[in-house]
Amino acid sequence: MIIGNLRIELEPRLSTPKWLYAAVPVLSLLFAFVVGGVFLALTGHSPIGTFSLLIERGYASTKGITNTLGSATPLICTGLAAAFAFRMNLFNIGEEGQMYLGMIGSAWAGIVLAGHLPSFAAVPMVLLFGALSGALWVLLPAVLRAKLGTSEIVSSLLLNYVALNLVNYFIFGSRGMFRDPTTSFPQGRLIEESARLGSFGTTRTYPTVLIAVALAIGLYWFMKRSNYGYETSVFADSPNTARYAGMSSTKLTLSVLLFSGALAGLAGSMYVVGPAGKVDPGLLQIGLGYAGIVVAALARYNFVAVILTAILFAGLREGGASLQISSNPVPISIAVVLQGSVLLFALGGEVFRRNRLRIRRIQQVGVVS
Amino acid sequence: MGSHRSGGATLFALSARQVTKRFPGVLANDRVDFDLLPGEVHTLLGENGAGKSTLASVLCGLYKPDEGAVLRNGTQVRLTSPRHGLQNGIAMVHQHFRLVDRFSVAENVVLGHRKLPFLLRANDLEDQVGQVAERFGLPLDPRAVVGELSAGQRQRVEIVKALYHGAEILLLDEPTALLAPPEVEKLFETVRAMTQAGKSVVFVSHKLGEVVDISDRVTVMRDGRVTGSVARGEADTRKLAELMVGRDIDLSPRRSRGEARETLLSLSNVGLTKDGVDRISQVSFAVRAGEIVGVAGVSGNGQRELAEIVAGLIAPTSGEVSINGERVNGVGTRNVRKAGLAYVPEDRLGTGLAPSLSIVDNLVLTRDRGFLVDRKSAHLEAEAFIKQLEIKTPSALTATRKLSGGNSQKVLLAREIFTAGSNSRVLVVCSPTRGLDVGAVEAVHKLLDEARNAGKAILLISEDLDEVLTLADKILVLYRGSVVHEATGDQVDVEAVGLAMAGLS
Q1: Are A227 and B69 within 8 A, CB to CB?
Q2: Which residues of B touch A246 (CB under 8 A)?
């Protein structure tokens, strides 16, 4: 671009200085708040006051941070699910539906099987069934992708709508086993008490947060050190090289997608063993599956960073929701605007991480002859 | 550069004066001077990254110089685009052709011409294009669809296109890279016809051998600078190589130094039929310990299929492949490796190596890895290789795509020659020096020679005839999937090999 006698260019960087890896996300966050601030000012709210309230209610108070951790728990799982698949260039967009299936599978196990088991085994079993159901929901897209090369993006996305209607059918459309038989009000039947986990004290944080965090760290280690992690990284980088080395693309594609689905399913079961205790249509309202994709992208598909971005996102949501209750109520949409701008600036910031902005004075070409 | 004619700069058809061009981290052209006479064939010689293509791009208007000037007939021109260059009579034929496959030759040639009538009359255009082609001795059917033409024919389309648009100066970027020897000869005839008509030709090349014959003058570049300019008669390959690389280079033939011993790789009557077409038919040969068997041929005559059959990536539809006496038809790459085969594919970054992974991780690729990957021993090994083979890299953890072609090839060869397993005695190598510098070519040839003398059986499949002639103890020529010619390393009739490559034997 040329303005006056200045030439403004983006030049690719040969190497990225380390500080930029930290500076880009921090600056994107800052810019996102500036944009959010403009919206606030335009709608007659004080930006500084609103943001300090948001931070207090999202992160800086005991109640705020424990609420945030509670809602970050399933978000970490869907974030891991997306990161796991995306790292291998497999774009599983079906976390939302796989999570619903995880909820249904866990509720089934919690209602039918949990009574036959001692309580120390009941919770793991319910979680396992959730993971299996999530994996099952991605089986079809995974097989189509691995065997026929069909785009997993479309097939996994479309199954989200099937899953959504399945949940609605179980609760609102039928009087099946997932529906609470004791009342005519349409709501889910509670699972066995032995299969549920209580929260920490009076907070809304459940022990499942520890599982989610352990999963992220374990996955990070496993994919870095194991042969499986190595093979997936070769395959992601260059399928031809994987073929050259005799790796099976079918096995890798299937296993990665199934494991991604299992992680998303686990998000649903954590919701069941924790706050919900049943198939709860409330989960359909909050889009944790789609948010997981955003969380993973923001974490640049790093499993440990997913923990942080999930907490950041959950905090914006919790804090944003509570802003509706204040002396000068702020609409929830402001929190959504903030989330959107965080993502936008973070992805835009990538341009500056990879390129350098150069502004040069245009020189007259000297004539020598 | 002094002209042998009297007079000032006005004599030159095209000149570069103190041209400097920078790219991020690279000074591609550093105060370069270049002069082209009318009717001259002038070669720009240099290794990859020497800056010759950058200079050609500046001369044709693709790049704007950061400093310095381009002069056409002694007057400065500020070229803003290749189209602008063409308006000044300057055209470039790129190494990768820029043609529309589904258009006819005539349609491709007239594409982009500003004075076309609103409605095209195909016959008129075809006649015009045919006339241009004929005048310069370029046999070409204007009605043929470009997608069905060979590389040599496509190149002719590009040249006719430039001439049709009024080019007086033609810049050819690595024009012989994709051609068989007879096609190269034809190209040279065309070039002579053009210079007789008063047009000038610039060859951009890194191949020493071929430029000496055709050029009136050779200008050599190294590291963005001109290191010398030599007129016809003064140029010999040795001197040019030294100007290119900056040191003495040994490209003399290397042959087996011992008796060839037991047969390690043998193919008998191997055939491959795909979609009803014979890709490989009735190929039989043996490679013994301590020898290099070279397979020559123009790209696309079954080399890739042959290599993939031996490497176990595809199973032959007939015949038998055996390694160390063990039949390995269709057992898969892992088992072929276990039987003792190492494989250096043609596409080094993207098949042989995973480009974004580190040198260490790429060394691990063909090992038995177990549940957890042991990178410690691989790291030590990588550092040893880096030292031993003089691989230029910031560290063993650098991604292979950040290495130069020569250095990434060294990584691949190191893995396949030294670490592929103690029992690996058969090595299949495909076009190992494609796109490499003269210095790197020398290093790769030395490595292969050493591996041969260490008792490996090596199958060298290469489109570069010079390479096969330099290294092989036995030469096979592959044409349309069959071996059409065989010769022993030191008694080669080069002309017969050339004809066989073109299918004329």
Answers
A1: no
A2: 332-334, 337
pLDDT over 50 (residue B2):
no
Strand partners, B318: B271
Chain A residues close to B332, C-beta within 8 Å: 246
**Tens of pLDDT along B51-83?**
898 999 999 999 999 999 999 998 999 998 888
The domain in which residue B269 lies consists of 263-501
Q: Are both B47 and B82 inside the same structural domain?
A: yes
Q: Where are the domains of chain A?
A: 72-306
B66: nearest CA partner in chain A: A365
- Whether residues B373 and B450 share a domain: the answer is yes
A100: tokens are 């619903």
Any B CB within 8 A of A368 CB? yes
Q: What is the ipTM of this complex?
A: 0.84
Domain harbouring B241, CATH code: 3.40.50.300
Regions in chain A scoring below 70 on pLDDT: 1, 14, 362-369
Please give the tally of structural domains in chain B. Answer: 2
The answer to whether residues B209 and B467 touch, using CB atoms and an 8 Å cutoff, is: no
Asked whether residue B297 falls in the same domain as residue B445, the answer is yes
Same domain, B432 and B346: yes
- Provide, as residue numbers in chain A, all residues whose Cβ is less than 8 Å from the Cβ of B412: none
Instruction: Say whether both B424 and B390 belong to one domain.
Output: yes
- Using CA of residue B164, residue B168, residue B174, residue B176, what is the dihedral sign? positive
Task: Give the Cα separation of B61 and A84 in Å (integer).
Answer: 46
Q: Measure CB to CB from residue A237 to each of B313, B357, B370 and give the nearest one.
A: B357
In chain B, which residues have their Cβ closer than 8 Å to the Cβ of A227? 369-373
Instruction: Give percent of chain B with pLDDT exceeding 70.
Output: 96
Q: Which two tokens stand for residue B21?
A: 């061009």
State whether B417 and B480 are in the same domain.
Answer: yes
Angle between the N-to-C axes of helices B494-501 and B181-196, in degrees from 0 to 180, rounded to the nearest 10: 90
